[in-house]
UniProtKB/TrEMBL annotation:
GO terms for molecular function: ATP binding; protein serine/threonine kinase activity. Residues 270-290, 314-335 are annotated as: Disordered. It catalyses: L-threonyl-[protein] + ATP = O-phospho-L-threonyl-[protein] + ADP + H(+); L-seryl-[protein] + ATP = O-phospho-L-seryl-[protein] + ADP + H(+). Its EC number is 2.7.11.1. Residues 11-271 form the Protein kinase domain. Keywords: ATP-binding, Kinase, Membrane, Nucleotide-binding, Serine/threonine-protein kinase, Transferase, Transmembrane, Transmembrane helix. NCBIfam families: PknB_PASTA_kin. The keyword Transmembrane applies. InterPro entries: Kinase-like_dom_sf, PASTA_dom, Prot_kinase_dom, Ser/Thr_kinase_AS. The keyword Kinase applies. The chain crosses the membrane at residues 347-368. Residues 369-436, 437-504, 505-571 form the PASTA domain. This is non-specific serine/threonine protein kinase.
């Protein structure tokens, strides 16, 4: 897709981010919400493949069900000109595979922090009975704040959809494939746990446990070979942390963690001093009855144990004659001592020389090898305290980095590089990472946005979100009118509560019978129900002067708040008097977006505040044969510039007058209105 193309009239393509086997991913800009997004577009050559389209749609369905800060959020799903596309959250940064390559070795504490985020996201997916089936570092994104986000649910499956996993089809990346998937069996939650164990292995060692020339050879190793020891690569890794890898990657699913939560709980204490003496994990029930290949060492031991027995049997079966035995004994007594005596002295001298040679080598190594020291644990200390401790350990402070952390207090050490416990030459520089406190989130202006999606997004980030509902004639139902925390503020989500004023739309009114009511009574009724009135006049012999002859719409009609009701008022019986002039005057009323309404007719304080920026209250006063300037001719609310027509009936040669008040301030007035 070319740069600059606007998808669905909303998402403008900026550049390509990557290409995959199923879809291509682009960076785009949402023109409506003014934000960058990722657009995943199904490849052109796969549009007609029903299985690929189902897989693509399954990714959208799986991801939209999962709302979690460590899962890439799906914003929109659609199709244009036969092109299937997903619109997702854009995550700046890199994937975990590249992160491991760039930052290895990674501090143990950081490994655990990243894994805890991944486990939290997978836990939510499993709670919704969704199995990812393709967990690997390439499908985990890391942003600059080291927040992990899982993506690509393209081959995810719910536990109820067993038919999607066939025995002759293997789905998932072979380096992270569980033994049961490698055999073509059905994927379960324990299959995801196995993949998580391989990811943890790679973060600790910088490489995957199994390599091979073909995908088949790697898959065979997953269910035939034991996972290599991470401590064989790095002896500083605690046994408890290695045990997490072993238990997650046990060959039999029943030997693994029962669920992701159990793995997360075990991982949290893996660096605890209380688990320093933990024994190596060995899964129970290793002998499951399957055919196994005995190692060569076992065969050697068996042969060695069998040899004495064979020798004994041979000796018993073929005894030597007595005279032959006595002759050999005599030979031994005569000459063997003389032959072996000089050889024994040669061995003694060789041993003495070798001993002194080894002592000399050890002394030389001790004198000339560099003096070493161990990096002390300064995590959670103040910078000055950490510097003092490092100096006491004969180490220097290197570069000092500042980064956000939700777990470590402000101005305290998050981690060191190299990590604590590492053996270094004296006077080596150790870099420090210092906490700047929890990451702050910059609030947007949410006015006009849908409350449901906005509240869900903020709650997922840790905000406490409250709702206040009010009626509005200008804002659609469900849209945000006001927010308690101003846009642009940077706040800590878990410490912030935000209240949204949300429109419930216009309220309906069933009209009462206003006939025979006075003008004042009609105006009071209209003000109480947020209605606008327009007046006409007619002579009547049956209705007293100043009372309503008829109304439009009539009694019982259902109207919306803010609608206009026309009332015809009586002038009383027609009588011959001086001639009158009847004419209309058009007046333009400008809208003021900065003023606030001071209407006493608002139903409550919150609605008055909510309408202040979106509505103006207009009151019109007339003076002619039928009106006096002391009473309101017409009251209305406007949301933009408006034009009204004012009817005048005045005696010939006389003048009328009008006055227009906007939000309590006179904005137009004419005391001499005549027929031109």
């Amino acid at each position: 897709m070319r740069t600059g193309y606007t998808l669905n009239g909303r998402y403008r393509i900026i550049r390509a981010l990557g290409e995959g086997g199923m879809a291509n991913v682009y960076l785009a800009h949402d023109l409506i919400l003014d934000r960058d997004v990722s657009v995943k577009l199904l490849r052109l050559d796969l549009r007609d493949d029903p299985s690929t389209v189902r897989r693509f749609q399954r990714e959208a369905l799986a991801a939209t069900e999962l709302l979690h800060p460590n899962i890439v959020q799906v914003y929109d799903v659609g199709e244009e000109n036969g092109m299937q596309y997903l619109v997702m959250e854009y995550v700046q940064g890199t994937d975990l595979k590249a992160y491991i390559k760039t930052h290895f070795p990674i501090a143990y504490q950081e490994v655990i922090e990243i894994m805890e985020q991944i486990l939290s996201a997978v836990k939510l997916a499993h709670e919704h009975n969704i199995i990812h089936r393709d967990l690997k570092p390439q499908n985990i994104l890391i942003d600059p704040q080291r927040v992990a986000k899982i993506t690509d649910f393209g081959i995810a499956v719910t536990l109820s959809e067993h038919s999607l996993t066939q025995t002759n089809t293997v789905l998932g990346s072979v380096h992270y494939l569980s033994p049961e998937q490698a055999r073509g069996g059905m994927a379960t939650k324990q299959s995801d746990i196995y993949s998580l164990g391989i990811i943890l292995y790679e973060m600790l060692t910088g490489t995957v446990p199994f390599e091979g020339e073909t995908a088949v050879s790697i898959a065979l190793k997953h269910f035939q070979s034991e996972i290599p020891s991470v401590r064989a690569v790095d002896a500083q890794i605690p046994q408890a942390l290695e045990n997490v890898v072993f238990k997650a990657t046990a060959k039999r699913p029943q030997d693994r963690y029962p669920d992701v939560a159990a793995m997360a709980t075990d991982l949290q204490t893996a660096l605890s001093p209380s688990r320093a003496g933990e024994e190596r994990f060995n899964p129970a029930g290793d002998d499951d009855g399957e055919t196994k290949v005995l190692p060569l060492s076992a065969l050697s031991e068996l042969t060695a144990a069998d040899q004495p027995v064979k020798a004994a049997v041979t000796d018993a079966a073929a005894p030597e004659p007595a005279n032959t035995t006595s002759e050999k004994a005599a030979d031994k007594a005569k000459g063997r001592y003389r032959k072996r005596h000089p050889r024994r002295f040669r061995f003694i001298w060789a041993a003495v020389i070798l001993f002194f040679l080894l002592v000399g080598i050890l002394i030389g190594v001790a004198l000339f090898r560099p003096q070493m020291t161990s990096v002390p644990n300064v995590v959670d200390r103040q910078q000055t305290s950490a510097q003092t401790t490092l100096t006491a350990a004969h180490l220097k402070v290197g570069e000092v980095h500042h980064t956000a952390s939700a777990k470590v207090k402000l101005h305290r050490i998050i981690r060191t590089e190299p990590r604590s416990g590492t053996q270094l030459k004296r006077n080596t520089a150790v870099d420090l990472w210092i906490s700047t406190g929890p990451q702050r989130y910059k609030l947007n202006d949410y006015k006009g946005d849908a409350y449901a999606s906005t509240a869900a997004k903020l709650q997922a980030l840790g905000f406490k979100v409250h709702r206040e509902s009010v009626h509005s004639t200008s804002v659609p139902a469900g849209r945000i009118m006001q927010q308690s925390v101003s846009a642009g503020q940077k706040v800590i989500p878990k410490d912030t509560a935000i209240t949204f004023t949300v429109s419930t739309g216009s309220q309906t009114v069933t009209l009462s019978d206003l006939t025979d009511k006075t003008k004042t009574q009609a105006q009071n009724y209209a003000a109480g129900h947020n209605l606008n009135l327009a007046f006409r006049y007619a002579y009547s012999n049956d209705v007293d002067k100043g009372k309503v002859i008829r109304q439009s719409p009539g009694e019982g009609a259902v109207v919306q708040e803010g609608d206009e009701i026309t009332l015809t008022l009586s002038r009383g019986p027609e009588s011959k008097g001086p001639e009158t002039d009847q004419f209309n005057v058009r007046v333009r009323i400008p809208f003021d977006s900065s003023s606030s309404s001071t209407s006493d007719t608002a139903s409550d304080d919150s609605s008055a505040v909510a309408s202040s920026a979106t509505e103006n209250l207009i009151q019109i006063y007339l003076k002619d044969q039928d009106h006096q300037l002391s009473s309101i001719y017409k009251q209305m609310t406007i949301t933009s510039d408006a034009t009204v027509t004012l009817p005048f009936t005045v005696a010939s040669g006389k003048a009328g007058a009008y006055k227009i008040v906007r939000n309590g301030t006179v904005i137009a007035e004419d005391k001499h209105v005549t027929k031109d």
